[in-house]
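Hi all, posting the design record for the shared folder.

TITLE: backbone redesign
STEP: 1 of 1
STRUCTURE INPUT:
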């Protein structure tokens, strides 16, 4: 494996050698969502050069974190996907997202946003203890349209999945506004009044939304 070596008999140093290089954690973030072709990764990682992306992917393959897989016909394309060892990093990614939330605001000019990142972000702050039993639809607008998600609460905690929830309680808001609602920095009623959020269905169900997440605690 190429790249930085720390010459320390320390598991954290070994981990940093593998995922501490610039862009590597963001490559892992994308592959946690799904296997991807080289071109898809290049498109989603804005400023990375093809040569650097190739170098980072080769290093992850050499480390046994990522593997190359050929898709069958009619696709006939090569994709990169996480190995079992690679997927084992997900709890650490979850905690890094929680920690990184302290530095997320204010938004920076020129920041890009992929709707799929909502899945990882909400999973990182979802409660793992019993939550109110409910189903809430979430719609996050973005320049190409909107992305739909379903949030479910119950005895096993909060779960998030991609999809739509027709006819149920629904909130539509930009993701930065949603995070402020979940953190109880902006009351839901205020967001609605200021046209930062639009809701449908049961207001009582929607008011439980912050109780499904640990963001208020995580940001302290």
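Okay, here is what came back for every position:
SEQUENCE:
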């Amino acid at each position: 494996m190429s790249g930085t070596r720390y010459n320390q008999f320390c598991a954290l140093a070994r981990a940093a050698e593998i995922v501490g290089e610039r862009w590597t954690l963001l490559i892992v973030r994308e592959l946690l969502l799904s296997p991807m072709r080289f071109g898809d990764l290049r498109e989603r990682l804005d400023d990375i050069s093809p040569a650097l992306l190739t170098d980072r992917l080769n290093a992850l393959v050499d480390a046994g974190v990522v593997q190359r897989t050929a898709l069958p016909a009619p696709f006939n394309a090569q994709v990169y996907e996480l190995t079992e060892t690679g997927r084992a990093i997900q709890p650490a990614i979850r905690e890094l997202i929680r920690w990184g939330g302290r530095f997320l605001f204010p938004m920076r000019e020129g920041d890009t946003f992929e709707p799929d990142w909502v899945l990882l972000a909400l999973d990182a702050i979802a409660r793992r203890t019993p939550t109110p039993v409910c189903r809430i639809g979430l719609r996050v607008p973005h320049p190409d349209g909107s992305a739909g998600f379903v949030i479910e609460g119950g005895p096993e905690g909060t779960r998030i999945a991609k999809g739509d929830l027709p006819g149920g309680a629904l909130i539509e808001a930009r993701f930065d506004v949603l995070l402020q609602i979940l953190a109880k920095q902006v009351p839901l009623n205020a967001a609605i009044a200021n046209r930062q959020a639009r809701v449908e269905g049961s207001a009582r169900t929607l008011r439980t939304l912050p109780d499904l997440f640990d963001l208020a605690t995580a940001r302290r």
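COMMENT: The chain has eleven helices and eight strands.
Let me know if anyone wants the other runs.
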